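Translate sequence into structure tokens.
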Amino acid sequence: MFAQLKDASAQATVHESHAAPFCDLHAFDARVALTAARPRRREVEALEASLGDKVMALDGRVGTLQATSLADAEMKYKKGATTSETNAELCELQTYARGEAAACVLDLRKIERFITLHVPKVEDGNNFGVAIQLEVAKLVKETGKECKGLLDALPAYHKDRAALLEKVVARTTTETSEATSSSNDEEKGSESKTTAKSGKSSSSTTKTSSAKPLPDAVAAVAQLDVQHRFALIFLLEVVRDAYIAVGDCLEKNKGKLVAPKGEGGNAMSMF
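Result follows.
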């Protein structure tokens, strides 16, 4: 019995000796993954330094767009409201606004992740700097959420416009029909022969239904374009203001974001 216990103890010791490095390996992998996911301080500082140029570019584009009133835009869009073509001007503007909004969402995510992963461990007392970190992270997250919501709503424009154009644009339909026939010819004589014959014929008919579109239907298409133009301008303003608000908040609270408990605190290294 003592021999069995001794063998069991030896086996347990062997398992423990193998288990310890295994756990350490997993802990090492977690640290490596965390380090890889954490934005470096120089990355965030470079992003912060580029905010001024981003704001200036966005502000210039918004100013140019706002120089054309919505009434003038509606008059222009009515001319193309009776064709099946897309609104090329709005498509170009949407591509630009979508790219800027998507970049803003990713930039804010990087800043939020940078702040969150540099919050020190929970301790009693001296948590004022940590509270500032959490408030700034909350601001960045909510700002990014607003941009993401406006970005997700963009595809609905094309769906709504297509539904309106069906009541305005003349529709052309093509109907194709095929017919197949077969017959057997039998020749009588000394030797009877049977010959099978088959044939196929097809025909197509093109029909165009056109009627003068209702003025309200044309106006609906034009006003949808105007509404979408305003939505894109508003999205660009939200992106511009997001950069301004976040950049200002980072500048004012940089000390606490870097070292929430002072230089001697236990915040994670940013390098």
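Note: The two ends are 58 Å apart (CA to CA).
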